[in-house]
Amino acid sequence: MRKLFRYWSELLVFGVIFTILMIDLAPDYTFMNKAADSIGYIYSAKYLYPSYHSSPPLYLLVSHLFLMISFGTEAWRMGLVSVLSTMGACVFIYLTIRKLIPNRFYPILGVLFYGTSALVLSQSIVVNTYATTCMLASGAYYFAISKKWKLVGLMIGIGLAVHLLMGFVFLITLIAFKEYRTNWKSLLITLSFGVFYLYVPLANRPPYMWFPDTTQTNTLLFLIKDVFNVINELIGKLSIYAFPKRVIETAGFLLVSVGVIGVIPIIYYFKKVGIKKNPLFYYILVPIVLFITELDPNTFDYTMLAMPFLSIVVCLGLDGLKSKQLVVSLTIILVACGIFNTYYFDIGNTLDPNLSAAKLYKDFDKIPDDAIFMPNANWEWEAIYKYNADYNKHIYPICLEFLSFESYRAQLKKDGVKLTENNDSNMSVLSKRVAQSIVLLNDNVWTTVSTNPRTFGVDVVKADNPAMVANVDEVKLAALSLNPRWEWMPSNPYDIMTTSIYVEEWNYVTVSNYSCLFFGIIILTGWVLSTQVWKTKERYFGKNIE
Q1: What is the pLDDT of residue 219?
Q2: Which helix H or strand E contains 357, and what residues bound it?
Q3: What pLDDT score does 476 carry?
Q4: 38-64, pLDDT tens digit by residue?
Q5: Does residue 484 form part of some domain?
Q6: Which residues constitute the domain of residue 541?
C-alpha cells in the first residue's frame, strides 16, 4: 500500500488513459479510423486463415486467444489487443524517460503525451496492428539503451512477425547500436521469428480470400511477391504535384497530435543534441517520410510509429529548456486535447453511432444462398467471407480490385461466373467493364450503394442494372492522369485520422511519371556525386579550398 501511495500520480495517469481507451474502443464492427480491414483480420484470426499482404501471423495467433473471451462482441474482444498494446507502449515510454531524466514528472508527462495523442488514440481503439508495433518498437529502444540485447532481439523479432513496418526499426537499431549488430545471439533471436510466416502456407486453404489465384504449394512465394509489388506500387510513387498537399496534411495531423507547442522542445532537443548519430531522429523521420511519399493517402497510420519516440523527445527537450511556463502550458493543452479526443473518437456514440460496418454485416441476411456479392468497396467484400463461415452460407464474393488480374477472372469462370473479357489498358476501366458484364450475364447479383460516405454507410441491394457497380468516373480519371496539377489545400487533420474523407476526397489520385521517388533518386545521386568530387579535390589540393 505504501508503494501504491508513493506512485499515485503514475497510477492516476495510467488509469485515466486506460479509461479513455476503454470508453472509445469500438463496441462492434466499424470502418472508421482505418479499420476497413478489421473484419478481414477478425475472420483470419478466428478461423486461422491468412490475411492480406504480409498476413501478420503472430498478431493473428494472439488475437485468436482474445477472441476466446466469453463476453463482448468479437470486434471489441480483438480491439483489446490494441488497447493493451498502447498501455504497454506507455509503460516502455515511462521507463525510457525515467532512465534518461531523473525528474519523475517527465515520465508521467510522456505517458500523458502519448496516450492522449489524437493519432495514437484513433489507432488504439480499432482492430489493427499499429498499436502493437508501437509497443514493440518502444520496447526495443528501452532495452537498447539498457544494454539488454537479447530483449532487443526479442522485441524486434516479435515486431517483424506482427507488421513488416518493424523492418525499419530493425535496420535503424542495427545501424545505431553496434552491440546489437555484433551480438549474434540477439540477431538469431530476431531472425528466428521469421518461422511464424510459415503460418501463411500452412493456414492457406479454400476459400481463398486474399490469395484467390494461388495454390497451396506456392502461397509463401506469392506472399513475398505480393509484398514487393505493394512496395513497388506505393513507396515513393506519390506524384510531385500532390507532394505539397501531403506535406502540409502530415504536418497538420502531427501538430495536432503533439499539442502544437510540443514542437518547441522537439526542435530544441535535436538542435542541441544533433541528428547525425541520434537514432531517435531516424525512428521519427522514417515512418513520416514513408507516408509523405507514398501513393496511398490511407497509409497515414504508418506515422503512428513515430509517436512513442516523439513522446520521449518532447520530455528530453523540456528537461533541457527548463521552462516551467512551457511545461505548464503543454500539460494544460494535453489535458484539454485528451478531453476533446475522448469525446471525438468515441466510436459507438460520436464518431460512428450507427456502426455502419456492423449494420452491413447484418444486412447480409438479405442475400440468398448461392448469390453473387460484388460490392463497390473492397472492405465490404472481405466481410462476406466471415459471414459465410459464421452462418454456414454460400454467398459468392467478387472483389472489384482483383478483376484486373487475368488469373482471377479465369478462376471466376472456372467457378461458373459468366463474364465478358476486356482488354482496356486502363485497369480501372477494365475492372468496371468486366464487373458490369457480370451483372448483365448472371442472375442474382448483389451489390452496395452508399448512404453515408463519411462513416462508410451502405445498403445491400440487388444489382438491377450494370451502372450500379464499379462506378468509375472515367473522364475525371483521365483528366487527372493526363493533366496533373499542384495540390495545396490540406484536408481536416481529424478527417484524415478517422478516414471519413476517404470516399469523398481519396477516390482519385494525381498520376504522374514525376514521382517523389524519381526526384529522390536524382537528388541522392547528385549528393553522392558532389560529395565524391569534393573528397577528390581535398585529396589532391588539400582541405583549404576556396
Answers
A1: 63
A2: helix 356-363
A3: 40
A4: 999 999 999 999 887 677 999 999 999
A5: no
A6: 515-546
